[in-house]
Amino acid sequence: MPTIAIVILVVFSAVLAGVIVVRPATTVSRAGKILAFCVLFFLPLFCLAAGMQNEMTRSESTAFCLSCHIMEPYGKSLHIDDPNYLAGAHFQNHRVPADEACYTCHTDYAMFGPVKAKLGGLRHLYVYYLGTPPTPENIKLYKPFNNEVCLHCHLGARSFEEGVVHNADPATLPAIKAGTLSCISSGCHETVHNVGHWAKDVKFWSAKD
User: Fold this and answer.
1) Average pLDDT over residues 11-29
2) Nearest-angstrom CA–CA distance, 140 and 45
3) Which of 5, 41, 86, 151 is deepest in the core (most CB within 10 A)?
4) Predicted local confidence at residue 9, as pLDDT
């Protein structure tokens, strides 16, 4: 539901609730009781559910993630003109949805993965407002990056299954699929965002209108 529709619904509910408070006699009749029930119970719950759904969806957007100034360098890294930067290469080539790039690559794709990701986001808010937030270059993942996130898209792809590097050693591909060899291991796709270690002359790419 669009944000403006939710706002209108909340205002409408508040006005009806005000009418019931100012004129309680309206609840004497059966119809009045039904109206009071809807206004004081059903409509608030509906507004809450619609608002939560709207905000949960918005929290998946790249713009939402990068609205925090600590994350600004990570947003800039998506535009570095260097194919060795894993995040930038995926973002610029639309290997992930550009408007949900952060969420796509930082979500556990298990059944309750999205819920876990959002709970992790709440932890970010707690640290930011009530704790001591780290500097951008010192931000760390809560746990090692899970290959399943990469394999969600790449598993079965010819470029992945038949890749020269992946098949140079017969043990490499099975280890990647089993998660015992990380996709971002040293010597593999190790340059992800690389915040704090950019070269001074790094170039940035911008999409053409």
Assistant:
1) 85
2) 37
3) 86
4) 81
Domain ranges of the chain: 3-58, 62-145
How many residues are present in the chain? 209
The predicted model gives 126-135 an average pLDDT of: 86
